[in-house]
């Protein structure tokens, strides 16, 4: 397998040296050079075509945000991983970067001293590289021909000769039969619940910007993110949405036309309170070690709302969410999954889809209208007639 070629971009000589050393310890990754500012970075991206770039945000001459915009405008095929500080300003920059097209982000410590801080950065990069290596494993091991699984179907794909696929041509398609459970909405949903990870912020911003009407139910969001970042994400969604969005707090009432984002580094669940459904924020562990965990939250949704919920699984790596969806499915809820083409990482939706938990896959562009159609059709009492299933 060809290694992922990585360019390190940072105006700090210390961070360049540290990240270079980390990359050289990660199997399947190859350090190809560094850039000290955004302008130099853009030049090297255009000429050397790295597969991955670790990108600092605050740099002279040309900022990280400017680099992302230029890479997107020029359609340069590289994955930009933001290196962000654990601060409010760093979180705002990272969320903005993800919205503009960055692949993902990692956080750096306030002080780069000791093996613990360096190991933390290494573990974060290792996870990002692992998913990229898995995503392109077949393509790079045999650049002329590869088999890819797309929404349960097998495709034989031809690629240009490069370390990552630059162009694909479908040479042959073999459709494997699969059983898809029938969609149904027994009763109008009383809550909408979403789970996501890598690629989630961009998907959430797209989804909420498309919601045009009041839904009359609360919305709950579990996004894999560290503390501070979830608060910034909630604010970013609130700024572009007609729905009031906030980071959830312990004791919050589940109000209609309000959305609640699970706080980073903690768990969120629902309970019956004196005034109705309430949010509880806990430090409980979860089976998949995620905090917040989609599975942890979805299991509480199954207990509280039974069949009266609409489940949505968006872009993200791993399988978090599927166990919770199984519990929800036992009550007959409807589940939407983001489709492969619009996902940054088709991991969480893929696992749910292959487990038979997704009633309909939708592009993120059509997700908002699908949600609105479900609510409208449920209110009218004709769930089978919903146009929410349009792709």
Low-confidence stretches: 138-186, 382-391
Number of strands: 17
Number of helices: 12
Q: Roughly how many Å apart are the termini?
A: 36 Å
Search tags:
391 residues; alpha/beta; seven-stranded parallel sheet; five-stranded parallel sheet; 17 strands; 35% helix
Task: Describe the protein's architecture and organization.
This protein has helices at 13-23, 38-48, 64-73, 88-100, 115-135, 137-141, 200-210, 229-240, 294-305, 322-329, 348-354, 364-380, and strands spanning 4-9, 29-35, 52-56, 79-85, 104-108, 146-150, 153-159, 168-174, 192-196, 219-223, 244-247, 258-261, 267-273, 276-282, 310-313, 334-338, 360-362. It has 391 residues and is an alpha/beta fold. The strands form 4 sheets. Strands 11-12-10-9-15-16-17 form a 7-stranded parallel sheet, sandwiched between helices. A 5-stranded parallel sheet has the order 2-1-3-4-5, with helices on both faces. The relative contact order is 0.10.
Question: TL;DR of this structure?
Answer:
With 391 residues, this protein is α/β, with parallel strands linked by helices. It is 35% helix and 24% strand. The strands form 4 sheets. It has a 7-stranded parallel sheet, with helices on both faces.
């Amino acid at each position: 397998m060809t290694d992922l070629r990585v360019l390190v971009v940072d105006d700090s000589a210390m961070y360049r040296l540290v990240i270079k050393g980390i990359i050289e310890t990660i199997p399947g990754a190859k350090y190809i050079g560094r850039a000290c500012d955004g302008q130099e970075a853009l030049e090297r991206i255009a000429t050397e075509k790295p597969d991955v770039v670790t990108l600092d945000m605050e740099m002279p001459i040309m900022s990280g945000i400017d680099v992302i915009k230029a890479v997107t405008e020029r359609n340069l095929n590289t994955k930009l991983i933001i290196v962000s500080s654990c601060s409010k300003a760093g979180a705002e920059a990272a969320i903005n970067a993800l919205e503009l097209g960055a692949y993902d982000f990692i956080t750096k410590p306030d002080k780069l001293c000791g093996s613990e801080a360096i190991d933390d950065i290494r573990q974060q990069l290792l996870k990002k590289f692992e998913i990229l290596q898995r995503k392109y494993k077949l393509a790079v091991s045999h650049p002329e021909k590869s088999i890819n699984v797309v929404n349960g179907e097998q495709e034989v794909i031809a690629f240009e000769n490069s370390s990552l696929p630059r162009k694909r041509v479908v040479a042959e398609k073999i459709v494997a039969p699969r059983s898809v459970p029938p969609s149904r909405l027994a009763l109008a949903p009383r809550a909408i619940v979403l789970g996501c990870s890598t690629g989630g912020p961009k998907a959430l911003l797209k989804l909420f910007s498309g919601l045009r009407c009041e839904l009359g139910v609360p919305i709950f969001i579990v996004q894999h993110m560290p503390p501070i970042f979830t608060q910034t994400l909630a604010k970013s969604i609130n700024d572009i949405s007609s729905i009031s969005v906030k980071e959830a707090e312990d004791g919050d009432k589940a109000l209609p036309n309000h959305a609640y984002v699970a706080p980073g580094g903690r768990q969120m669940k629902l309970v019956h309170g004196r005034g109705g459904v309430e949010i509880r924020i806990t430090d409980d562990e979860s089976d998949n070690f995620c905090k917040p965990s989609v599975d942890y939250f979805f299991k509480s949704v199954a207990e509280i709302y039974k069949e009266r919920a609409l489940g949505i699984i968006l872009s993200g790596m791993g399988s978090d969410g599927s166990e919770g969806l199984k519990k929800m499915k036992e009550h007959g809820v409807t589940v939407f999954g983001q489709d492969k083409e619009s996902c940054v990482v088709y991991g969480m939706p893929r696992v749910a889809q292959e487990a038979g938990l997704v009633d309909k896959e939708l592009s993120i562009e059509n997700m908002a209208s699908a949600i609105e159609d479900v609510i409208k059709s449920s209110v009218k009492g004709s769930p089978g007639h919903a146009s929410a299933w349009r792709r």
